[in-house]
Model the fold of this input.
Amino acid sequence: MFAQVHNEKIVSFIKEKNKETTFTVSNCAGAQLIGKSVIADGHKIVTWIGGGEQLQKDYPNLKVQNDSLVTFVEDGKFSSSNGNLANYISALNLLEKMTSFEHRKFVESYLYLYRLQNWKE
Done:
């Protein structure tokens, strides 16, 4: 992510597109790009597990949540998640907002997420 955070074209693109979006979502280390673009200053955000301390240090105007306890967070138009399987939480939440609860449940049924609930058995 270091190279992308220092790529002014990408950061400018995010700033400009954010003006048009209803929702802006980041997953995993994408929170670094949100921080660099300053579009979510004053908002809650979460990043990959282990990355929150550095994110807060680099972008003190973000309200970085404890990444070892918080998997997904919403604040206004901004949603963020830790990454990996947590991406499904933010994606499904966004899908529900854009369509309906019923459509979200339909998509969930094809992802077999319910199987993850008892994975230790």
Remarks:
- Residues 2-118 form a domain with the Rossmann fold fold (CATH 3.40.50.880).
- The chain has six helices and five strands.
